[in-house]
Amino acid sequence: MPAITYETLNSATDITSTRTLLNEAIPLTGTIVSGTYNEAVSPGFTSATNVKNYSHGMFQSVYDYPYLSSSANHIFDLTVGYATTSGMSSSASTQNAKKINMYNVMAQSLLGYDVSGAIETFESDLDLTDNNSQMKEVFFIDFSRLLTKDQIKKGSFSLALVTGSTDLGPKLRGLTALPITTLTDLSASDDGGTNPNVNGGEYGLLYNSPYTASAVGAVFYQAGVAVITASVFCTASQVDGIPKNAKFTRNNSNIYGLTGSWTSLPISSSCDEIRRRIANLSFNNTTELNSTIYFCRAASTKFNYSSNPTYTTGSKLRVKSVATDTPVSYITTVGLYDSNNELLAIAKLSEPLKKDPTNEITLRVRLDY
After folding, report:
1. Most buried one in 237, 288, 336, 359, CB count within 10 A?
2. Same domain? 200 vs 336
3. What does R_g of the chain's alpha carbons equal in angstroms?
4. Domain final residue pick, 236, 264, 287
5. By the 8 A CB rule, do 121 and 198 touch?
6. Cα(189)–Cα(21) distance, rounded to whole angstroms?
7. Which helix (H) or strand (E) holds 269?
8. How many domains does the chain have?
């Protein structure tokens, strides 16, 4: 039934907007990423039913269940790459062009270009203009939007990696005895510790505190991407995953603990080697809930009569038995209209509210989007 009388909302006093951030904990254990659904053929792996490799060979997708199942959810994509200026870049390297392309694509989308028009290089600091602490050989974890929602919560990211010579294996064998490196972004928060001036939004640095003074990676919160230097895997001279010089280093093209060379392995094989060393991965996602709140006010002199046809019988009000009685109405619904008095939204009350000239009512209507 169309409204008969309207009350204009004052934009200054009757309308306000709010933003609420909802967080959800996302734990991804190594058993899901590199253990539960592996089809092992002694002495190692041949395939994993929850890991999908593609004919183009540029990345692999990881699911929480065998990916051919309708119940499977995409968790993240994994790939590796290096810059054209990397010492690993050579025409003799396996999939050299694709590894360079993956690095450039991710750098373009997440960092952009410098003042000269060249693609920015990933760095283990927040200042992209100094070209210091460059990360030229990295691997990327690109999380699905299903997990990250609007963004990863700052200061919540944690990645535990096995950095020794033994991967987790089909049954996560001897996990407590393996050297574990845990990377976190604990230095980042909503009010600091991030760089917001890049294409991919804000990013924070990943540290292996307290063993490293410099960062070994970065997590891009809005994009939902973690970028980690290949040097996070220790060289053979290091003990139990803790570098003697308190600094991660790269042993030329060989990453200690990975089978084969970074340059001789195809991307899919490198991804397998890295994925099998993920012991634990967790973060909190963020859902941004925007709301507009309307304060609909019924003054004492207004809305004391109903426009419902059943409100009257003949020429008399059903709710009045004596002409001098106070008029009464019951509020059950609030309608929001545009400037042309066209109905846009309806809010229903859980129970009718009695309205008469002796009271005033303010109804709070919230629209979430």
Report:
1. 336
2. no
3. 30
4. 287
5. no
6. 14
7. helix 267-275
8. 2
Domain ranges, residue 117: 21-287
Q: What is the DSSP letter of 200?
A: T
- What is the per-residue pLDDT across 125-154, written as a single tens digit (0 to 9) for each? 888 877 778 899 899 999 999 999 999 999
Give 84-119 pLDDT, tens digit per residue. 998 888 888 899 999 999 999 999 999 999 888 999
Residue 259 lies in a domain: yes
CA 290 to chain centre: 17
243, 267, 287 - which closes a domain: 287
Half-sphere CA count of 142, side-chain side, radius 13 A: 19
Distance CA 47, CA 40 (A): 7
Residue 8 falls inside a structural domain:
no
d(CA 232, CA 241): 9
Per-residue HEC secondary structure of 48-67 comes to ECCEEECCCCCCEEEECCCC
Check whether residue 326 and residue 236 sit in a common domain: no
- Could you read off the pLDDT of 3-40 as tens digits, one per residue? 677 889 998 999 999 999 999 999 998 778 876 665 54
Q: What is the DSSP string of 311-344?
A: GEETTEETT-SSTTSPP-EEEEEEEEE-TT--EE
Tell me, yes or no, whether 7 lies in a domain. no
| Virtual torsion, Cα 44, 49, 51, 54, nearest 10 deg | 100
Rounded Cα–Cα distance for residues 123 and 129 (Å): 10
327/183 same-domain check: no
Question: Do 137 and 283 lie in a common domain?
Answer: yes
Q: Are residues 333 and 251 part of one domain?
A: no
Strand positions, DSSP E, the chain: 15-29, 38-41, 44-48, 51-53, 60-63, 74-82, 137-143, 151-152, 158-162, 180-184, 194-195, 203-206, 217-220, 225-229, 278-298, 312-313, 316-317, 329-337, 343-355, 361-368
Question: Is there a single domain that holds both residue 233 and residue 305?
Answer: no
Contacts of 364 by beta carbon, 8 Å cutoff, 6+ apart: 293, 294, 295, 296
Mark whether 170 and 275 lie in a shared domain: yes
Which among 323, 322, 319 has a CA at the least distance from the CA of 352? Answer: 319
DSSP 10: P
Dihedral angle over CA of 339, 343, 348, 351, nearest 10: 80
Residues 115 and 189 in one domain: yes
* Cis amide linkage into residue 210, ω under 30° from 0: yes
Q: What would the two tokens of residue 22 be? A: 């909802």
